[in-house]
Amino acid sequence: GNARARDFGIEFARGSIVAFPDDDCAYEADVLERVAAAFAQRPQLGVLSAACYEFGGSDFSIGVNPARAGGFSRFSMVGVEFTHFFHRDRLDRHEFRIDHDFGIGSKYSGGEGFELLYRLLRAGGVGYYEPAIRIYHANKDSYLVGADRMLRYSSGVGAYIRKFANQRDVSMIYFVARKMFAAPLIKLFIAVLSRNPARIRYSFNNLVGIWHGFLAYRSGGNTEGKLHA
């Protein structure tokens, strides 16, 4: 899976700044120059997030992409795994590793980026988001693409919430309320009002996937109760 591949790469990386671009994303020509400058301007910065845009346009694509630049914390995480840049010398080295339970080819197909980001920020890492740094990726987080993908990927969200809840991290009270109740239920309600069957199924799968991941989470070994679309 990609988690093991990325973990393997971390061990062999020689530079201070590490990133994990996807095979279906593209960097704007000045991305690396802008990233290096952003870290140079902010001596405490540990994690920098670029913004994700649709190919050939100015509309945001997948992930969490605010309109304005600014700092972020573990309670307001932004970006997506392939828009994050990590300065290894300014982060907890013990926490800068990928949990092999998360990511494509692992037990939970999604959530690997935010699981890592949460741990790094919780350990004291400083995050900053800059939408002027542009990375392009097709928008796959849409009911127009299909609902089954959402079912698989959202299981990772529920699983990482359960992982940290098992560690008695009281911050998970906020994440349970926001990501497991408020956000998916509001999206489902709006989808029902739209009377669009595809959008309803997409939103329903989001809710089901999150709860399945939360209830099925086990660290290591095989997943109990496989998730099927």
List keywords for this structure.
229 residues, alpha+beta, 6 strands, disordered C terminus
Structure notes:
- Helices cover 41% and strands 14% of the residues.
- Mean pLDDT is 92; it is low at 221-229.
- Helix 4 (148-166) runs antiparallel to helix 5 and helix 5 (172-194) packs antiparallel against helix 6.
- Strands 1, 2, 3, 4, 5 and 6 form a 6-stranded mixed beta sheet that branches.
- With 229 residues, it is an alpha+beta fold.
- It has helices spanning 2-12, 31-41, 112-122, 148-166, 172-194, 197-216, and strands at 17-19, 25-27, 47-53, 70-72, 84-87, 127-137.
- The longest helix is centred in the last third of the chain and has 23 residues, at 172-194.
Structure at a glance:
41% of the residues lie in helices and 14% in strands. It contains 6 helices and 6 strands, in the order αββαβββαβααα.
What layout of secondary structure does this protein have?
Blueprint: H1 2-12, E1 17-19, E2 25-27, H2 31-41, E3 47-53, E4 70-72, E5 84-87, H3 112-122, E6 127-137, H4 148-166, H5 172-194, H6 197-216
Parallel strand pairs: 3-6
Antiparallel strand pairs: 1-5, 2-6, 3-5, 4-6
Helix pairs in contact: 4-5, 4-6, 5-6
